[in-house]
Amino acid sequence: MAKSWQYVLVCMLAASPLCIEGILLSTSLALLSGPLLGLATLTVPYLIGTYRLGHRRTLRLFLIGSSSAVAVSALVFSTLTGYNLTDEWWATPQYVSLLFQGHDWYSLPLRAGTSIWNVYLPLLPFIQVPFSWFDYRWFTLIMWCLMVYAVRRRYYTSITLGAQYPALMAASGFNDLVPLLFLTLAFVTFKGRPARAAEILSLGMKQFANIFVFIYHLAHQDWSQAGVTVVMSALFLLPFLLWDWKSAVCTPILYMPPDCQSTQTFMFNTIHTGVNFALWPVWVVAVFHPTLIAWGTRRLEQIRTGLKRFRVRQE
The dihedral of CA 44, 15, 212, 179: what is its sign? Predict the structure, then answer.
C-alpha cells in the first residue's frame, strides 16, 4: 500500500517545473533548465508506477488540473507584466503578413526592435486563429489541452503530457505544441488514413517532427515511408525553393541568415531559447515508453548473454 509521503513526493516533483523556471532562467545555468524540466516531468509517472500509487483517477485529475491552473496563471502574469520566455507567441502568427505583402518570409525578417527570422517550415505559421482576434499563447494552450485529451486513454502518457512543463511551454506561446498535437493524433489517436494525413501535415511545421518521423520509419525498417518523409518535407518547401532557393535552404534548414554567409546561427540567440527543446524527448518517451522499455530490455539481455559467453571463453 502506498504511503502518504510517496504521494507528497510525487506532488512536489510535479510542481518542480515552476520552481526550476523561476530559479534557473534568471541565472547563468539557464541552459540546464530544459534537461532538468524534462527529467522532472518524466520522473513523476515513473514514481507513480514504481510506488504503485492508488486513487489513479483522482491523482491524474489533480496533476493535470494543477498544471492547467499554473499555465493559465503564467499566461495572465505574462500578459500583465510583458515578461515572456520566447518571441514565438508573437512572431509565429505574424510571418504570414510578410507573404500577404508579397515578400519571401525566408529572405525578409520581421522587425520588432530586432530582426526575427522565420526558421520554421511553411505550414506552421498558417495554423492559427488570426492574431488580431486571438492571442497565440491561448491558441498554443488550447493545442496542449487537445493533445492531453487525445491521449486520455493512456494513463501514464496523459500524466506526462499533462504535466506542468508542457503546460507552461504552451502558456508561453512556444509553437512546438502545434506539431506535437499532430504527431499525437498520427501515432496515438487516429488510425489509417486520418493518422497518415496528420503525419504528413506534421512534416510541414517544425523540423524536429521531420527528424522524428524519418528516424521512426528507419527504426521500423520501412524504407519507402522514410523516403516519402523526405519527399513530402521537400514538397512543403518547394514553392520557396523556386522563389529563392538560397534563403529556403539557409534559414529553415541550416538555421542561418538567408545568405548563408554568417557563421552565427539562430540556435542560442537568447538565454531562453533551449528551454522548450526537452518537450520533444519528453513526448517520445511519453508516447513510446512501452516500446522503448521492451527495446532496452532486449538490449540488456543481449549484453548479459554476450558477457556470459565471454566469461565462458575466458575460462
Answer: positive
Q: pLDDT by residue (tens digit) across 55-89?
A: 899 999 999 999 999 999 999 999 999 888 888 99
* Full-model pTM: 0.92
Cα separation, 163 vs 14, whole angstroms: 7
Q: Is 110 helix (H, G, I), strand (E, B) or coil?
A: strand
How far, CA to CA in Å, does 79 sit from each of 20, 43, 173, 307? 21, 31, 11, 58
Taking the C-alpha atoms of residue 252 and residue 127, their distance in angstroms, rounded to an integer, is 17
Handedness of CA 153, 155, 157, 163 (dihedral sign): positive
307 CB-side CA count, 13 A: 6
What span, in angstroms and rounded, lies between the C-alpha atoms of 111 and 145?
31
Write the pLDDT tens digit of every residue in 147-173.
Answer: 999 999 999 999 999 999 999 999 999
Q: Of 262, 213, 248, which is closest to residue 106 (Cα–Cα)?
A: 248
